[in-house]
């Protein structure tokens, strides 16, 4: 009975984690370049919670282990904005921005320029070019961003937006503000990533799918809670009857 209670609790912990992931996905339905995350779980068979000496040997006790989340790198829908500072990333590449904690990576191409003429994100982080931050003078006109990230104005080429890829993008960790951090160095994207100027990549979250997941999690959590409650009542009844016999 105790094993059954522990199995139920492990299931509830996993379901709570799944609920957090789904809620975060739903909260970012409108976030530019956001990538869905999906929970990953693994069955764990307790190696010592069985006895083979009985006429019918015990079954292995199966628990649920949280194995983290998987990043869905599927392309989000592209929406035309007409803003020359907006870029949508196509392919598996990431944009590089400089934060106080170092370089971070994003798919959000909603850029703007600050008071110093530096190309920055909406959070004020400098967009990194192949030679560092990209500067655009306030008097310059005819701004355009090419598919390879080349930024040009009426005065010529001002820089080239840095695009990178990762050997194992699943190792990227969320670092807030729709940014990712990596413990391994990226490599130049090459043909693995291109930019579309005057457009933004929207979130690849599918609201209908996430709502279905949310209902499934709530239904399963309620069912497991009911099982745990019945087991607790059964244990209480057993204790009372044993005390009466004693």
From TrEMBL:
InterPro entries: Flag_bb_rod_N (IPR001444), Flagellar_FlgE/F/G (IPR020013), Flg_bb/hook_C_dom (IPR010930), FlgE/F/G-like (IPR037925), FlgF (IPR012836), LlgE_F_G-like_D1 (IPR053967). Residues 197-240 form the Flagellar basal-body/hook protein C-terminal domain. Keywords: Bacterial flagellum, Cell projection, Cilium, Flagellum. It is found in: Bacterial flagellum basal body. It holds the Pfam family Flg_bb_rod. Transmembrane segments: none annotated. Residues 5-35 form the Flagellar basal body rod protein N-terminal domain. The keyword Signal does not apply. The basal body constitutes a major portion of the flagellar organelle and consists of five rings (E,L,P,S, and M) mounted on a central rod. The rod consists of about 26 subunits of FlgG in the distal portion, and FlgB, FlgC and FlgF are thought to build up the proximal portion of the rod with about 6 subunits each. This is Flagellar basal-body rod protein FlgF. It comes from Methylobacterium adhaesivum.
């Amino acid at each position: 009975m105790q094993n059954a209670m522990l199995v139920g609790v492990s299931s509830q912990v996993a379901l709570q984690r799944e609920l957090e992931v789904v809620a975060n996905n739903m909260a970012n339905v409108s976030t530019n370049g956001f990538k869905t995350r999906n929970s990953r779980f693994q069955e764990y068979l307790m190696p010592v919670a069985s006895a083979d000496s009985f006429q019918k040997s015990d079954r292995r006790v199966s628990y649920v282990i949280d194995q983290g989340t998987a990043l869905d790198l599927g392309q989000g829908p592209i929406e035309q904005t007409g803003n020359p500072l907006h870029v949508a990333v196509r392919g598996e590449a990431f944009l590089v921005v400089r934060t106080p904690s170092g370089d971070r990576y994003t798919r959000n191409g909603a850029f703007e320029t600050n008071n110093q003429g530096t190309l920055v994100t909406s959070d004020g982080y400098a967009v990194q070019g192949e030679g560092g931050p990209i500067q655009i003078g306030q008097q310059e006109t005819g701004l355009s961003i090419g598919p390879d990230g080349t930024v040009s104005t009426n005065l010529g080429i001002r820089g080239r937006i840095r695009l990178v890829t990762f050997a194992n993008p699943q190792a990227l960790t969320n670092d807030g503000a729709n940014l990712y951090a990596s413990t391994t160095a990226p490599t130049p994207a090459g043909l693995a990533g291109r930019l579309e100027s005057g457009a933004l990549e929207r979130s690849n979250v599918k609201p209908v799918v996430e709502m279905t997941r949310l209902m499934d999690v709530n239904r399963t959590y309620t069912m497991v809670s009911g099982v745990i409650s019945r087991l607790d009542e059964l244990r209480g009844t057993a204790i009372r009857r044993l005390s009466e016999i004693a």
